[in-house]
């Protein structure tokens, strides 16, 4: 689904939308083997950046379905874990989806607060979440993590941490606050924090037709 690319500055390009609700955000492409992109916020207090697989916040391509399997994953590294908020997953379009910016109205996503060192997992509908806290282990500064979830053919939602199914943190089909099939969503990754970066090696999103 992605390895490198996207607009260099805020705006839409190549099927991607880069937003910065506070401050100015950019994408750079470092000279590393097999490619990566770096999402960067400027020095503005509470600077925020969000990269969505869309050309507009209203372009939403995925739905929750109890019969069509869905995989959403990313491999990324946060510059300074305890100095940036983080968001990754599916959501209704939102230029600032992290804790400070208020979570999207609907989604299935991971997030962490500014000083948190682990991520929480949400199923969210109409502004209310069912939440599984502390999904994995302690995040490490500037160290890659593969994070994601899979929705199976009966609608159960399983989070994964570095390839391991976190079975105790699963959200079962029928649980309150899972988005309705009439609530389309887009894939996005975001952080908030002045002069912070998120390095993205790759993102993947795939749903059965």
Q: What series of H and E elements makes up the topology?
A: EEEEEEEEEEEEEEE
Helix fraction bin: under 10%
Percent of sequence in beta strands: 35-45%
- Helical/strand content category: mainly beta
Main sheet overview: 8 strands, antiparallel
Structure summary, number of beta strands: 15
Placed side by side, the strands forming the largest sheet appear as 1-2-5-14-7-8-9-10
Q: Report the C-alpha radius of gyration, rounded.
A: 16 Å
Description:
This protein is mostly beta strands and 209 residues long. Helices cover 0% and strands 41% of the residues. The protein is built from no helices and 15 strands. It has strands at 11-13, 16-19, 25-28, 37-41, 48-52, 70-78, 85-91, 107-112, 120-125, 128-132, 145-151, 157-161, 164-165, 186-192, 197-207. Strands 1-2-5-14-7-8-9-10 form an 8-stranded antiparallel β-sheet, with no helix packed on it. β9 (120-125) and β10 (128-132) form a beta hairpin.
Summarize the topology:
Blueprint (H helix, E strand, L loop, with lengths): L10 E3 L2 E4 L5 E4 L8 E5 L6 E5 L17 E9 L6 E7 L15 E6 L7 E6 L2 E5 L12 E7 L5 E5 L2 E2 L20 E7 L4 E11 L2
Antiparallel strand pairs: 1-2, 2-5, 3-4, 4-15, 5-14, 6-11, 6-15, 7-8, 7-14, 8-9, 9-10, 11-12, 12-13
Which descriptors apply to this entry?
about 210 residues, mainly beta, 8-stranded antiparallel sheet, 7-stranded antiparallel sheet
Quick structural summary:
The chain has strands at 11-13, 16-19, 25-28, 37-41, 48-52, 70-78, 85-91, 107-112, 120-125, 128-132, 145-151, 157-161, 164-165, 186-192, 197-207.
